[in-house]
Amino acid sequence: MSNEMKAVGLYKHLPITDEESLIDVTVPKPTASGHDILVRVKAVSVNPVDTKVRANGDEEDEPKILGYDASGVVEEVGDDVSLFQVGDEVYYAGSVARPGSNSEFHLVDERIVAQKPYTLSHKEAAALPLTSLTSWEALFERLHIPFNQTANQGKTILIIGAAGGVGSIATQLAHMAGLTVIGTASREETITWTKNRGAHYTINHHHSFGPQLEELGMNEVDYIFCLSSTAQHWDEMVNVIKPQGKICSIVETDENLNLSALQHKSATFVWEFMFTRPLFQTEDMREQHNILSHVAKLIDEGELTTTLTKTLTGLNAKNLREAHATLESGKMIGKLVLEQEG
Fold first, then answer.
1. Domain ranges of the chain
2. What does the buried/exposed string (b/e) look like for 211-244 if buried means 16 or more CB atoms within 10 Å of the residue's CB?
3. In this predicted model, what pLDDT tens digit does every residue of 65-117 receive, in sequence order?
4. CA quadruple 326, 112, 272, 179: dihedral, nearest 10
5. What is the CATH number of domain 4-128+278-339?
6. CB 311: neighbour CB atoms within 10 A?
7. In the prediction, which pLDDT does 2 show?
């Protein structure tokens, strides 16, 4: 068996229009040890984090391989692995601290992996892990929303950027938890998509939130989940969050946020970064295995649906450059997946 594998990587952090921004490479095939499993990658999806890591950084001595979401088959297991065996079909979102999934084979810690939903193909499953983990952690851990329809009766959540990858899952989960969901969307197709995922109302993020909410009979919201331009929307969020309400964002900013503006409302602001657990090897790292297992169950029971909207066949540099360019256009609805040929 060959000890090399094909992958897509980069040596220089370049604009996606440059052909060297992502290139086809051959690298050593890794082997599994400890808590790691080696996965034969069947499909990957592309996320905004891929484009951010690609565009920023110093020149690399070794090819840097991106890619976080993946679905595939377990090829090999480390000595300490207890959750999986060879032949299992799995899905996961990986770690920013390790080589990514844009390769034939991929090493990943079993504690952040789950059995893929059995009702989905690999390409449908690959669309889910990062956005599901981000949404679940944000809603139920960072914002402390109970997963209980009775407890959430009459409670409202505003999801800023509801038609994107994370928004498409967060909208479904928030609806499932019994919240009244207001999603932001500005185009006819994104409004339709958002409402089809379970948003009760939509408002336009290019206009002031307050008056639009008032038209819906609301002056304020209990929760806000921000998936777009934290600094740009900051004053609007401060304005419409309910006293003692909670705001969570996933979008980093170079601008200073005026946290004091939340003081009179005793409002909470919290970050969600899906890679925190694997990055810091936290004691509760296995919680990501539990969340993905729960999500797979909801998928297989028909409660949640995959958000795959576009598939490219062939996990190669040309297709990945196209995928990154599509994401960077800012017009992406749902998720874009690349599947291995054959």
1. 4-128+278-339, 132-271
2. ebbeeeebebbbbbbbbbebeebbebbbebbbee
3. 999 999 999 999 999 999 999 999 999 999 999 999 999 999 999 999 999 99
4. 90
5. 3.90.180.10
6. 17
7. 73
- Retrieve residue 257's tokens: 């946020």
161 φ, ψ (degrees, to nearest 5) = 90, 50
Residue 26 phi/psi, 5° resolution? -115, 130
Q: What are phi and psi of 68, to 5 degrees?
A: -120, -55
CATH H-level, domain 132-271: superfamily = NAD(P)-binding Rossmann-like Domain (3.40.50.720)
Residue 205 CA from chain centroid, whole number: 21
E strand or H helix that includes residue 242: strand 241-249
DSSP letter for 117, please. Answer: P
Distance in angstroms (rounded) separating the CA atoms of residues 13 and 211: 43
Question: Strand 180-184 vs strand 201-203: parallel, antiparallel, or unpaired?
Answer: parallel
C-alpha distances in angstroms, 29 versus 2, 4, 108?
Answer: 8, 5, 13
Distance CA 332, CA 325 (A): 10
Cβ atoms of 209 and 203 closer than 8 Å: yes
Average pLDDT of span 285-310: 97
CB 179 within 8 A of CB 202: no
Distance CA 126, CA 132 (A): 11
